[in-house]
Amino acid sequence: MITLLVGENNFEVTRAIQKLGADFDGIAEKIDGSELEPRQLPDLLAGATLFADKRLVIIKNLSDNKSMWANFVDFIPRVSDDVHLVIVEPKPDKRTKTYKDLHKVSVVNEFAAWTDRDERKAEEWTIKEAANLDFTLDKKSAQTLVRQIGVDQWQLYRALEKLSVVDSVTPDVIADIIETNPSENVFQLFDAALKGDMAKVRQMVATLQLSEDPYRLFGLLSGQVFQLVALVIGEKPSTEIAKDIGVHPYALSQLVSHAKSLNKAKVKKIVDAFVEADADMKSLGVEPWILLERALLKVAAI
After folding, report:
1. 180 has pLDDT over 80
2. Among 6, 68, 203, 223, which is least packed by CB within 10 angstroms?
3. What is the pTM of this model?
4. Cβ distance 292 to 188 under 8 Å?
């Protein structure tokens, strides 16, 4: 039997592997496919050994090993009936003959990475996971948790583990004990700039310097600028614009009030401030936090 686990959702793939291991009466053999050599394949795909009647062989990232991936197509028919072969590929080239042939004969499970569009799915998932951890998470608390952390399942699950020891989980409790996702910090920072609150901008930048990477933060802020521009120049409802640019409607809705108070001339000044900061980060030997703060203060002055 061959199982093919495909996709960049590392959390779900890891869970699938754990379940396969739990259901198997024995010890799974885990192989790094990127370092696999041709001479090892016959033994891996052979049947029973002196130590086990059945075998579970898990090979990860075989497609990273280009020559082995190309040649593996010849070994597919040789997989013994006594072997459950699991091929784990986060991002395989589905155009290759090996993938096409594997797909034909395998039980295929695809695990796509979640994006901002999957907030509702994440909320439903956290409610179910909370139940599995023996506590109740209501819908409002689930929404608060996802908006505070984002849709990364590893981070959500670690947060749920923290919450599982609390007597009663509420949105206020979540705000108190769960660290805010950088994306939420970014919105609050950009929101302060758009409101002209220079003091808050300076205070937040000083705080974020202690834990955030300035280049990553600048990239997230640039994303907020892009969304704001889309709202200002777009001639559609925000829900349609969100769909067009691939963001969650909730994320875009937070900028709607600001977009209504801006015209194209003002939003161009915001774009220019970030374009200038981006160029300076790439060419000047100036501390990036200074350039980031300067761009935000320019926005606050508009």
Report:
1. no
2. 203
3. 0.65
4. no
Residue by residue, DSSP assigns 40-61 as: GHHHHH----SS-SSEEEEEE-
The mean per-residue pLDDT over the stretch 151-163 comes to 93
Residues 248, 172: one domain?
no
Same domain membership, residue 266 and residue 191: yes
Q: Cβ of 271: how many Cβ atoms within 10 Å?
A: 16
Tell me, what's the pLDDT at 58? 96
Domain containing 296: what range?
A: 182-301
Long-range pairs of 160-168 with CB within 8 A, sequence gap ≥ 24: 160/126, 160/129, 160/130, 160/133, 161/133, 163/130, 163/135, 163/137, 164/130, 164/133, 164/134, 164/135, 166/135
Residue 49 has pLDDT above 70, yes or no: no
Which band of pLDDT confidence, cut at 50, 70 and 90, is reported for residue 50? low
Which letter does DSSP use for residue 32 in this model? E
Q: How confident is the model at residue 52 (pLDDT cuts 50, 70, 90)?
A: low
CATH code of the domain containing 105: 3.40.50.300
